[in-house]
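REQUEST
  id: r-88c1
  op: predict_structure
  target: Maestro heat-like repeat-containing protein family member 1 homolog
  payload:
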Amino acid sequence: MAATSQVSSLLDLIMSLLDTATTYQHQESVKNEVAESLKTIGSHQPNVLLTACHQYLLQNPKLGAFKRAFVLQTISICVDNCEVVSKLDEQIIMLIINLATQEMNMTKDTDVEWAESSMEVLVTLAKNTRFVSHVIDAILQKFPPGQTTSPHRYIVLTMATIAVHNPFGLVPFLTDILSRTVPLLQHVKTDPLRCAWARAICSFCEAVRECETERPKEASEEYIGDHSRPNSASGHCQEVSNRATYSDQTEAVYDVIFSWIYSKDPKTRGEAAECVGELCLMIKQTRLVEDVKKIVTNMIPLYRKSYNESHMITQGICRFLEAACVDETCPLEPYLEDILNALFPNACLDPDDTTVTLSTQAIKNHSEAFRCFDVAATRFADRIVYYLLHKMQNVADSQKLGAINVLRHLLNATGQHMEDKRSLLTMGLKKLLAAENTTSIRVKRAIVQLCVALADHSYVDAEGGDYVIAFLVRNLVGPTEQESAAKKVEVDVAGLNQLRTQCAQALYTIANTCVCATKLLWPYLLEFICCERYTPVVGDLCKCLRTLVSREVEAGRKMDYVTGFDNPKVAGRHAVFARLFTSFCNAPLNGLLTRRAREAGGLIQAVAPWFHPSMEGPAARWSEKLEPLLDELSTTVSSGDSAPAELRGRKIARWHEACLDWLSACVAVVPEGDWRQDLAAAMGKQLDMYKELSDEKSFLLRCLGVTLARITAKQFVIDHMMLMFKSASHSVLTERQGCARGVGSIATSHMDLILIELENVSKWEHARKSSGIFGFIKDTMPIRQYPDIEMIHLRATLMLCYGHVVMACSLDTITQRLQNTIIVFLRNYFANSKQETVVREAMLETMRLIATAVHPSRIGGEWKFEARNELLAYAKDYLNGETPEWLTSSLRLLACKTTAALVQLEPPLSPADIEDIGTVLTRQILPMQREKSGLKTLAFDIFDYASSSVFSTFSGSSSSHTNIYMTPPLTANSVAEGPNGTPIHQRHRGIGGKMEDDESATIMDATMHQYGLALEQIVRMAPTTQTIMILLKILLPYYGKQADHERIRAVDMTVLVLRVYYECAEDISLGHASDFEPLSSLLGRLAPRLIDLLAHVRLQALSAIHWTLRLAYMHKGHGRDADQSLFSYSGFVEKYLTSGDVKLEGQKEKLAIEAIAQIIEYRLPQSQMQIYLSAIFEMLTDRQSHVSSAAAQLLTYAVMARGATLNAEAEILVTKMVEKLADIHHCVQTNTDVLAALVAFAVHQQQAVCDVLFKQPLPYSINITDAWECLSRDKLLFAVILDHLTELLGASLDQPFELMDSGGGVSAKVVNVEPCTYVAVLAEVVKNGEPESALMERLPLILTLLIHFICSVSDTQFPVMQKEGSKNPLIITPDLRRAAEKPAGMAVAAIKNLLNRTRSNMVIEDMNQARAWTDCLDKDSFIQAITVFIRSLVEQRPAWVSPLAKTMEEYANSESEPRRLAAVIIAASLIRRSTSENGEFNEQLLVKCIRRLEDSLTDPSLRIRKLCVKGLGELSECSSTDVISRFVHMAVEAAMSGLDDHGDRKDTVAIESIMALNKLVQLTNNDQLKSILPLVLLKIRPCFEKDSHTLRAASFSLFGELGSRVGENSEEFRGHLHTNIVSLLLHLNDDFEEVRQNCANSIYRLHGLLTSPNASICIERELKDGKQPASYNLFIKDFASILANSFPDRINQYALATSNYFKSSSARIRCNAAHLTGCLLDGLTAPLRATISRELVFTGLVALLKDSEDVNVRISATRAIANLHDFH
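RESPONSE
  id: r-88c1
  status: 200
  body:
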């Protein structure tokens, strides 16, 4: 439609909407809105809409396919509405039906959407019984009888779809349809048409069957002369016969459709196959019998040619099977094999296979194939079972899986048909379950599932159940690596685990429930229990065996240990016993091992008589002691009140010791030596079974050692000891430990024999191997000179063996054997520090075991171990070879444990030795920060808690002694106090804590713990001050390390050393006073650490200080008596240091430092003061700013307290403090604290300090800022500095800037340096100046100068470079230009500081809310910002106002424009409210301000004139009516004159005039308002549409004000209100918030003038108190309806006025106009609709539909047209 054509009806509007949708078809939002609008119109005027759509399609024959589809979809949506069906005109519907059929016939094969839209129209109408006959008639018109050419494909599909949605509507026409179809089908040649006809015939058949179901009475007729037809495969439904009505026609159709199976198109073949299947349920039974061969032989081959049509073919076959299997009449047997072969591949798909993505059709086809087998099984179950068993023998996994799954499905789904096939199934599955049948894991898992199904149906009890058992047992374990490599297949670990779990569960189920379980499983399972491959499933086998024995015992039968045990494959009793004991290894470690041990222990107890008749008693200990112990150790969580959770490593050690004790008891009760040797031999043979299981092998070696200790045959012992060495993999740590502990166990009974054999083993290193790793030859060979890795690990095992042999040595011979034999032998190895790490670790462990063995508490007496220092030297040599930061082994941990054990031996270490060993340990351990991965998991293997701890060995000592030894260093924040107030720290155990060498800790944590124990033992052996100073000297350098872990470790060790010294000090005499030398150094370095970032360091530092002061008190001769004057540790922590793991708050830091400074001042001797200060100065540069600040505070307290004694050092002290300022500038608090000490000195040189600071560059550095702050806080300096500054600043403002030539005739104002400097200083000194009274006296002058500064420099800039030749230092730096942006920003900063100083927070808040601080920097907005500031002072600080105004009086007549401007700003700001000092009204001040503004109305400056008009407008808010009455006329005249200001080119004065008038009209009497009203209304009307949103907002506001004053009695204003109401409503949703708000206010204030109650109610509800509506669209909808109903004579005026805005430049206004138009014209009565100028309005809306700028405009126009549905 052309843009210039006139639109006058709804029909034209609908046509325009359709044109819009087709024009903007790619804009989904527009298209969707048009569709929604058409839907709305269609729900009210469906006939008009349908007529419009009909005409549109007819008038636009060349419209594109997608566009025509949209129109048809619109029709479909309209007629699909149930509410409008009754309104539809039948003639129009007939036209639409004909249109749809014509459109359908016009489509091509590619026009899918167009054709489907046409079909949707017809189907939608056909769903209704009113129109279904018309639709089918219309369709049949396109399908005349006798036609040899098929109708359009979508005509056929439409009939099919109608049959699906309304079968009862179509079936009455079916005879006619089929009569036309039958002669036509043979002429259908194209594949798409054949597909359509096949689909339609399927739908026809389904419709007939559905009608039979819904109307069974109509289906009571029987077939005449033929068998009845079933409707299901089960044959249980009643026979129905109304299909007979169509039997002849369907047979004719069947003949034609069947020929389509031979089509070349795969989809046609699939559709034809499904259709043939459906027709099989419709044709006569005799015909089906005749065509069985034809159907089978033609449908089966279709699978080979199908692509995606398999599902349709399978459905067709399924329907055929339903018809053929209902009884025995159909001769299907000859073809069953072919049918199954065709269906079976479809059943072989695995929907659970995640490696293959199956389509939805494939999954449906799979289910349909299963259904086919299910249907066929109702008649041919035995044939199907044979078939499936045969398929299971196929080599392809998919074939096997398919057969297994189908068989399982039949067992579960068609059980009644499979009952008599039990023996057939059992025998048929033997080959599948046989061992030689190697299949994949997926197939095996499917077989297991089939076995479960067989067990559920009691098939396993029958003959052949042993094959099932063998299969399950065989698949308990996966293939070996060799087998997998031979098959060249990737091992599916997850699949193997699932298979094992399924097999184990199936075996247990059989053992627990099967009647013949004992016959099947006993002793068959014993063949596998000792097989290496079955090691992972020993627990499952034991469970089954134990269950069998329990069932036999419960049944009162004895186990048969004879029958079947002659089988060589069945394991013997010794082998089983050894195997079961090895299963106890690491039982508490996890649930799997616990379950294995529990089952093995239960089996040992159950079959104990089989092992030996005398073992039944000891075997009972399993349930009495060991099983409860296992339950206890398996518990991982302890309750809150219970003992701490035991370490996992200690649990395993306890468990192993208990098991070995049980083994020893079991062996001891057997008197026969041969039985013991047989058991040991069986253990030796099983060592090779655990090549890959080091933990089990290590435990078996220990078991073998315990067993050999009970054997007296020496040669047997020697042979098996050698076997232990040869079988152990010495490169594995756990096996080394197991071998060494096993040898130690043997040594308890054969000490001499073991020592001799160990020497023989040591000679292996010097012999050439002839075979294997440790083979050796008899002939003489030279000694090897090159290292061998196997020999290295053997050497490590040998060293460990000697350690455990020493521990096993009897106490009466240990010293002699050690000195004469063992040490002499080991010294050759110990002396070589260059050996490999593994050997050094073993030697350190051996040293520790030796020291433990000869500890005085163990052997008694005062025997001295002379080789102690020698061994310590070896340990130091080993440590020195390590890298401090990198932890790669357990060598350091073992060295600490060795040191802790050796230092306990007599005699005590010398000071030199202490320093030497302490330095080496500390240097190698404290810096550790990285460790090699994997060390953590070896922790409990390396350290066997049962015997490796020095302290656990001496458990017989006193409890107090044990507690002292076991107290670890502090690692958590738990705090308590002892009897003397001494801090005692304990580690949180169990929950979140890491104890000792637990495997939950890292090796690094365990190493630190052992390091602490080593230092503790050093102090305990030599508890003197000298020892403490040596150790502290080593630790002090680590207090200030940057690395957290080094500080933590250093203070931890310090606390540990001081605590242990306090407990054991021997150089303290009661009554003898002496200095505690480490006191000053510790206090100087640890006191600042009280506010370390780490809470742990803080608490430990305080603990160290407490211990230090306690020790100093002891050294005064008081002994260990309580020092009543010493601070309470817990009280100090609670008061100052309680902050959790985060850093302390600033106030708490100061309080803590002040408190500790007072303590130090009281307790530090003057003789140690110099050392203390030196330490403090070192701490000033600590890496942590909080710590350096604390040091500075301590320095301040020290200077203040003892300054009189430091006169000679005062100058040096101050100099150092000033020098430190640059070094500590990063720490503000440190600067502050250092400057605090500087203030006392600065008082005497105040003038010099000021002069120097004036010359510092701007912006001031942190140091200079802090200096000014310190100076201003001094009460003597503050007032003098202020007076000096104000004088200098006032003089500098006479010439605040210079004009600089920028080139090209352009100059720029550049601010001078002096005013900036003085303002910057002023900003600093007013921050914290004292006293405040001095500041308040000078406050008016300061504010005046700052406001003057802003006015003077508002349009200036900073100098970019310094003047040439200037010798003054550079003050205005680039940093200042970046920080302050503009010079006025410096005054803003000063004002902020001043307000903060005077606690005028509300003034700051007022400025923040108005964003006035930012406006101060803008040359156009600074006046408003100052106004906000002055008015805030009036409200918050009235006492400042009068002095400020008085100070400004001298500026009023100044020649300087900035001074006059400042005076006018103050005067204008005080018009609204002028107050005296007490906050009351000050009329005198107000009059002065008004006069000042009146006098300035003629000022040459435009901004001053503008400000005067604005200020006089504020007179409306004045509280004095007298003053208002005196000056309001003058103010109004001034505002009116401002409307015509000739210099006002940008309407700035005009805007202020309108705003002033807006305020003043409230104060003007009616006569005066009436006199100016015509002029104001004339002036204001154009302002509504000005581009300036500020002017629009002011105009709307003034209009509202005028109306509220004179509108009630002025008909003239009422007329203007109706004229302007449209503008108010449209701009209520203006682009700018200010305009929207003013419109809302005006509408709210003027609603009474409309004299419409409904309008008033609506406005008061939606625009309450002048607020904007919550939803503009909803408000316009309601209000427009009210306007139309209230003022029907003006509705056309409103509509035309609104249409004028259709061409507005604002897209939002155009949207609003469209919306308002739609709402105004919605729901009008017929007479009112007749008054509307339709052509203008409708044409404008249509133009908006084509808006090219904004899509929202088109959407709004579309929505508006939807509301015009009544304009038809």
